[in-house]
């Protein structure tokens, strides 16, 4: 057995020695930085809406959009982080740089929540009126802090799990088994970080002070960076091979330049330079892209009288074209899973605002509104354990299969999200009835916050299915050389889901607000009709599910590969099998 890893080097650039690099210790150091990232991002996101409404005096709909835009940008920037890691920086430098950026962001947020000059004056406590909203400068500082955090999060998410998997050699059976356990621990660390965020950190925000909580996030991330850098000599590094995004643009550009050409009658005449074992069979769909593999004299350049390799922006191999086709075939399923994350966005915005108006006391302890999302996290964990320990064994015994297919899991997630929004609409109807009978100055309505548990639990269980189903689908149904890109495609469903939420809130606010100045999404949640908004999401969910069924039936899966088990999924949305950097 070789004592070096074939495709990895040490920090000096020499072949990585297995006895001195990689393994559990370096992987554990990487897990520490992921724990801090989850603590910071989720601790800020789940309770940010209460700060925007209560301290910055912004309307509830505006506050919800700020949160969803922040989260959407975080996931969208994963594409930027992945591109930089694959093409220029490598995963190690990407993690270090973007972790430092997130540290600056949390530090800036701590300062903005501490200084009175960066907040509007308090409302008239007697009447609850005369609330002056934050001015442009105050909001500008807040936005700067939030989007520094979003930039840092995006860079980290793109590289952390991939760099962790780099510490194990897939060609070594022992290390390959260790890698599977690494991802289980990765999921555990993410869950622990999220639980700490929605319980301890949210409690500190509400009872001690937000500046203290955000300061803890900044210090935690700084310590994690130091711990991460301590492993520099022990890490294994893989060479950057370029981003697959470039390949997609090359195929499209080459096909467009040759759009007026006729393809060959025999597809074997298309250009091919891929080794036989790695070639992909030609397919009839999207045949216009085949023109990128038509050979012309202009595709080759001569240097010193010798013909050089073809210009990749003019001529692409048939296999590269087929890889792009495979990615295109994923798009209908991709598009019909976006709405789930729009539903998810309500759990950290309007649902938290609902909780802030309800009775949250247990004995002498008052549950922070943002901590209600703990039921969301618990639902995910319970669902995963139930699936692994109950459903999978029964399904294997009954059907002879390892579990639901990735498309079936996504379908279950969509159905649960529909029921979650229906439950949210019903609970909001009951809350509004209590609000109408209460005095206008009542701060806490006489109705238990535990009425909201069904919506958190249903959508949380839905995430356990759709998240793992999506990640399995995009990893196993994408070309081997584009797994980084396919994971990025998966992350964009989260990003676009948050942006669709912001768009939908703005449209509903404008359309329904013209009727009486308040509408469904009134500035005061007790004066609006949030139940109608939840009902709209339920209807949209049903329509989207019908579209998903059509797309799932249209999709022709590639040859089956071992399914990604729910217990071993990387729950922050990153690829467990990076092939490039």
From TrEMBL:
Keywords: Membrane, Transmembrane, Transmembrane helix. It is found in: Membrane. InterPro entries: MFS_trans_sf (IPR036259), POT_fam (IPR000109), PTR2_symporter_CS (IPR018456). The keyword Transmembrane applies. It comes from Morus notabilis. It is a multi-pass membrane protein. GO terms for cellular component: membrane. It comes from the Eukaryota. This is Nitrate transporter 1.4. PROSITE patterns: PTR2_1. One of its GO terms (molecular function) is transmembrane transporter activity. Belongs to the major facilitator superfamily. Proton-dependent oligopeptide transporter (POT/PTR) (TC 2.A.17) family. Pfam families: PTR2. One of its GO terms (biological process) is oligopeptide transport. The chain crosses the membrane at residues 70-89, 96-116, 136-156, 186-205, 211-231, 330-347, 367-387, 407-427, 447-467, 488-508, 533-551.
């Amino acid at each position: 057995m070789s004592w070096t890893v074939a495709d990895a080097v040490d920090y000096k650039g020499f072949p990585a020695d297995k006895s001195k690099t990689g393994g559990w210790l370096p992987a554990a150091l990487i897990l520490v930085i992921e724990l801090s990232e989850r603590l910071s991002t989720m601790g800020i996101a789940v309770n940010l809406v209460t700060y925007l409404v209560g301290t910055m005096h912004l309307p509830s709909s505006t506050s919800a959009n700020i949160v969803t835009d922040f989260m959407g940008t975080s996931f969208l920037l994963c594409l930027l982080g992945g591109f930089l890691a694959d093409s220029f920086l490598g995963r190690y430098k990407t993690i270090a740089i973007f972790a430092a950026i997130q540290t600056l962001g949390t530090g800036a947020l701590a300062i903005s929540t501490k200084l009175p000059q960066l907040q509007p004056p308090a409302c008239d406590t007697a009447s609850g009126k005369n609330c002056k909203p934050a001015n442009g400068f105050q909001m500008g500082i807040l936005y700067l802090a939030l989007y520094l955090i979003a930039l840092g999060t995006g860079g980290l998410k793109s590289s952390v799990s991939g760099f962790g998997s780099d510490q194990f050699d897939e060609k070594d059976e022992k290390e390959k088994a260790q890698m599977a356990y690494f991802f289980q621990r990765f999921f555990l660390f993410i869950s622990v970080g999220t639980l700490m965020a929605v319980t301890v950190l949210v409690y500190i925000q509400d009872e001690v002070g937000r500046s203290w909580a955000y300061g803890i996030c900044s210090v935690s991330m700084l310590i994690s960076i130091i711990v991460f850098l301590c492993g520099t000599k022990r890490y294994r590094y893989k060479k950057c091979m370029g981003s697959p995004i470039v390949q997609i643009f090359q195929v499209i550009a080459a096909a467009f330049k040759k759009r007026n050409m006729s393809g060959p009658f025999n597809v074997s005449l298309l250009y091919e330079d891929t080794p036989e074992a790695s070639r992909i069979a030609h397919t009839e769909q999207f045949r216009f892209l085949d023109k990128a593999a038509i050979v012309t004299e202009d595709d080759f350049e001569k240097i010193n009288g010798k013909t050089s390799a073809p210009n990749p922006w003019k001529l692409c191999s048939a296999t590269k074209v087929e890889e792009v086709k495979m990615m295109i075939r994923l798009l209908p399923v991709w598009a019909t899973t976006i709405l789930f994350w729009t539903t998810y966005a309500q759990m950290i915005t309007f649902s938290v605002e609902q909780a802030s108006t309800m009775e949250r006391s247990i004995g002498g302890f008052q549950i922070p509104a943002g901590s209600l999302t703990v039921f969301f996290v618990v639902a995910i964990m319970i669902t995963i354990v139930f699936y692994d320990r109950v459903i999978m064994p029964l399904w294997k015994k009954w059907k002879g299969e390892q579990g639901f297919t990735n498309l079936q899991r996504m379908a279950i997630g969509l159905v649960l999200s529909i029921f979650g929004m229906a439950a949210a609409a019903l609970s909001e109807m009951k809350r509004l009835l209590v609000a109408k009978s209460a005095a206008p100055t009542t701060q806490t309505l006489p109705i238990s916050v535990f009425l909201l548990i069904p919506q958190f639990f249903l959508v949380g269980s839905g995430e356990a299915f759709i998240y793992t189903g999506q990640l399995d689908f995009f990893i196993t149904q994408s070309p081997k050389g584009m797994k980084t890109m396919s994971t990025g495609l998966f992350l964009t469903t989260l990003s676009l889901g948050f942006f669709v939420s912001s768009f939908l809130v703005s449209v509903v606010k404008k359309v329904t607000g013209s009727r009486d100045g308040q509408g469904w999404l009134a500035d005061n949640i007790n004066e609006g009709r949030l139940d109608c908004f939840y009902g709209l999401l339920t209807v949209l969910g049903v329509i989207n599910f019908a579209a998903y069924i059509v797309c799932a039936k249209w999709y022709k899966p590639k040859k089956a590969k071992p399914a990604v088990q729910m217990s071993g999924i990387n729950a922050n949305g990153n690829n467990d099998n990076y092939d490039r950097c």
